[in-house]
Amino acid sequence: MYRHDAQALRPHYLVEIDPKPFLEGNCEPPPVPEWVGEHLRANPFAVVRRGPVTGEHVPIGVRGAERNQRWAARCQPKLVRRVITPPQLLARLVPRSRADAAPALRALQRLESRWMDLDHPWGPGGSVGFELATGRQVVKGNSDLDIVIYATRRMLSDEARALSADAMELPATVDNRVETPVCGFSLREYACASAAAILLRTQSGAVLGRDPWRANPGS
User: Fold this and answer.
1) For this structure, is 100 an active site residue?
2) Domain ranges across the chain
3) Which of 103, 164, 200, 203 is the most buried (most CB within 10 A)?
């Protein structure tokens, strides 16, 4: 069993869960789609969604083989076997054959060399993160590279602009998301916003705000 403070789990973390008791205990409507059980029995990984994390439930999302196969659920922390964070995935080796086939994986390799001095923890999310964590080949030729930056300390706009510039002219489109202790937001939007409000994704929903590190960013 994974022994950890469930409230330390953050959005975009990947969790390996115990599929049998999870599927048997998830009786809340709507019913569990058939593909969810097939997926979890073969590859029991899900991603932590944004939302309240308690000692009783962790909000997770299960992804299937198709783009429209996404299912939101809640999982008991005791059913979490292992947690993999996006920064940990930077240590995973990308096979040459996969890098040749998937521009998003090549883009990650190049971004690593450009962001060597970045002192915020960061790593891949989305399909790239899922493939590196599970070994399941889900990254397609037209997949974007989703990046998650965990910025506990305040990020200045000049720093955001420099990071955004470094993520340009790569083999795949890069979508950089920043996660603070209170919300998430687009790095590009933050870099370009100046004094304007930007869209902030909080546990209670999306709001407009100017300070993503403020305890109540939408106020």
Assistant:
1) no
2) 6-84, 86-209
3) 200
